[in-house]
TrEMBL record:
PROSITE patterns: TPR. Keywords: Repeat, Signal, TPR repeat. TPR repeats lie at residues 107-140. It comes from the Bacteria. PANTHER family: TETRATRICOPEPTIDE REPEAT PROTEIN 6, UDP-N-ACETYLGLUCOSAMINE--PEPTIDE N-ACETYLGLUCOSAMINYLTRANSFERASE SPINDLY-RELATED. This is Uncharacterized protein. It comes from Roseovarius litoreus.
Amino acid sequence: MKNGVASIIALALSLAFHGPALAQEQTCPPAPDHSAALTDLIRAAQAAEDERSGRMLSNEMWALWSDAPDSYAQELLDEGMSRRNIYDYDGAMKAFEALIAYCPDYAEGYNQRAFIHFLREDFSAALPDLDRTLALSPRHVAAITGRALTLSALERKAEAVLALRKALAMNPWLSERHLLPVLEAAEQEL
């Protein structure tokens, strides 16, 4: 982990001192195109007969979303996720911000930063990152689910219901499926 932090600091310092010239030298390649594999996983999740099978397919989807464009981007993503897992949200945020600066067209950087905002209960900050994730990766089921949870926390129940239904249409086995009746009831009360 120390090497990851050192890399983040080195990139930030290099960008600060060398500006646009260095940024042009260190260009993030396009994210891998996993659209066909994601289509197959979504179809399999829709046809899955039980929760265990659906969860396994969700894990395979995560493997696709977390496949960064290059080794440096992967290092930043892994560092941020490791930091998040030990509740070092400041360190995680730095890693995800560095990832977004390096790879502005890689959806998972925004999704992970949104998750940190969500964990910090800064729901208003999470929503634009989730929207950017979905602009880059419209079938990111986890981001759609995260958007539903964020909208619910912002008391935007009708939008939350629509988002959760959209996610469940792609993967009916999401653990958040149990929240749909609760959100629908809350929407009815409004």
